[in-house]
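Run log, item B.
One chain of 73 residues. Sequence copied directly from the ordering sheet:
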Amino acid sequence: MPTPDMWNGEPLPARGRTHTEIHYRLYDRNTRALLSFNSTNSIDALVTDVLRTQQENPDARIYAVEYDGPAYQ
């Protein structure tokens, strides 16, 4: 049996996983430039994209915006 996730010494309730389609674009808050975009059902993929984008643009202040559909259809 897996160990429950703990936060501040208290166990978090067990929850099922979900897969929701996420359409997002990453921008530089300083310049308003579009740095990346993607559609995914994985928070892990989004975080990986943010980290990669930050590495490629070390001076950028990255912010993400979620949209109601993909960049291309």
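Observations after the first pass:
- The beta strands are 6-7, 10-11, 22-28, 34-40, 62-67.
- The mean pLDDT is 94.
Flagged for discussion on Thursday.
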